[in-house]
């Protein structure tokens, strides 16, 4: 049997938060956008606390989003008639493709708490049709493990397949562990991967690097291998974390405002198309 690649922590950091006031109450960069070259195929991840009116009607082009609801109720509205409410543990996947226009709002007077991950698209997929997929918490397979469980949103993990249908190969899992529990998480060796600690504390990787709530870490990987790798976790208190992985795209790109394209001219064209009405009517109920 081929020995699995043993992952370690490549880099780790505590998330820094800023108070924005009403209605975008607080924000932190889990994956800071200025470090995007480290995260390929991921671009950034924002953690937000917000009230209604923060993310009303707006456009996107050229990438995907994965929004995980930590707390509160998130209302999705798009300009193709889509409407849904997501609760804690639910996830929405969006392929912006060529022309998304949507709103992400807190319901009523809720203070919504979310994580939104931006996932790049290769050049050949940036003109695809816009689509949305809700993955409700009860639809994501829950796998019991010693001292905890793994909830699988995307990819082949722990013997099950997550329901998320991403255009590029990714995995997304939520791991919950009792204090003292150990777990080996298996993901493709050639995937770039990161973790974000939602609660508690743990030791991560071959170095047993200590991480606690609101800490993020990237992991070592071998892009030349098609095999499997193992991420070792040991909870030092009751812990909950998210683990994401994806195969790097390795294309130059530009992220500007709500658009992610390969050239400056493509960014300018996206703005022209939006202002000319090419993204369709506003996203309102």
What would you say about this model in short?
This is Pirin. The protein is mainly beta.
What do you see in this structure?
With 285 residues, the chain is mostly beta strands. It has one domain (5-9, 17-246): Jelly Rolls (Sandwich). Helix content is 4%, strand content 52%. Strands 2-23-20-25-18-15-14 form a 7-stranded antiparallel beta sheet, with no helix packed on it. Strands 3-4-5-12-7-10-13 form a 7-stranded antiparallel beta sheet, with no helix packed on it. It is globular and about 55 Å long. The termini are far apart. The model has no long low-confidence stretch (mean pLDDT 97).
Supply database-style keywords.
single chain, 285 residues, mainly beta, Jelly Rolls, seven-stranded antiparallel β-sheet, 1 helix
Rg: 19 Å
Structural class, judged by helices and strands?
mainly beta
- Domain unit count: 1
Distance between the termini: 56 Å
Sketch the topology as an H/E string, one letter per element: EEEEEEEEEEEEEEEEEEEEEEEEEEEH
Helix content: under 10%
Named CATH architecture = Sandwich
How many alpha or pi helices?
Answer: 1
Low-confidence stretches: none
Mean pLDDT, nearest integer? 97
Oligomerization category of the chains in this entry? single chain
- How many beta-strand segments? 27
Proportion of residues in β-strands: over 45%
Q: Report the biggest beta sheet as strand number plus sense, adding barrel if it closes.
A: 7 strands, antiparallel
Query: And the CATH topology?
Result: Jelly Rolls
CATH superfamily: Jelly Rolls
- CATH top-level class: Mainly Beta
Spatial shape:
globular
Spatial strand sequence of the major β-sheet: 2-23-20-25-18-15-14
């Amino acid at each position: 049997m081929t020995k699995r690649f043993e992952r370690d922590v490549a880099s780790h950091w505590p998330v820094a938060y800023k108070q924005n006031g009403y209605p975008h109450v607080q924000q932190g960069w889990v994956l800071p956008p200025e470090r995007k070259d480290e995260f390929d195929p991921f671009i950034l991840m924002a953690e937000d606390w917000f009230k209604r009116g923060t993310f009303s009607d707006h456009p996107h082009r050229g990438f995907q989003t994965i929004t995980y609801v930590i707390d509160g109720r998130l209302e999705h509205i798009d300009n193709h008639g889509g409407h849904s409410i997501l609760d804690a543990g639910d996830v929405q996947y969006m392929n912006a493709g060529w022309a998304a226009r949507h709103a992400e709002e807190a319901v009523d007077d809720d203070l919504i708490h979310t994580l939104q991950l931006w996932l790049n698209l290769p050049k050949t997929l940036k003109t695809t049709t816009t689509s949305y997929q809700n993955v409700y918490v009860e639809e994501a397979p829950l796998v019991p493990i010693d001292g905890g469980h793994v909830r699988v949103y995307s990819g082949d993990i722990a013997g099950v397949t997550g329901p998320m249908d991403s255009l590029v190969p990714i995995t997304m899992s939520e791991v919950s562990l009792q204090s003292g529990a150990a777990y080996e998480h298996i993901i493709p060796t050639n995937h770039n991967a990161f973790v974000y600690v939602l609660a508690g504390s743990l030791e991560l990787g071959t170095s047993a690097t200590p991480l606690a709530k609101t800490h993020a870490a990237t992991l070592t990987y071998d892009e030349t291998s098609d095999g499997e790798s193992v991420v070792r976790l040991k909870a030092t208190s009751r812990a909950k974390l998210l683990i994401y992985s994806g195969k790097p795209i390795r294309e130059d790109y530009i992220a500007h405002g709500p658009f992610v394209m390969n050239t400056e001219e493509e960014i300018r064209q996206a703005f022209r198309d939006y202002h000319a009405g090419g993204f369709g009517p506003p996203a309102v109920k």
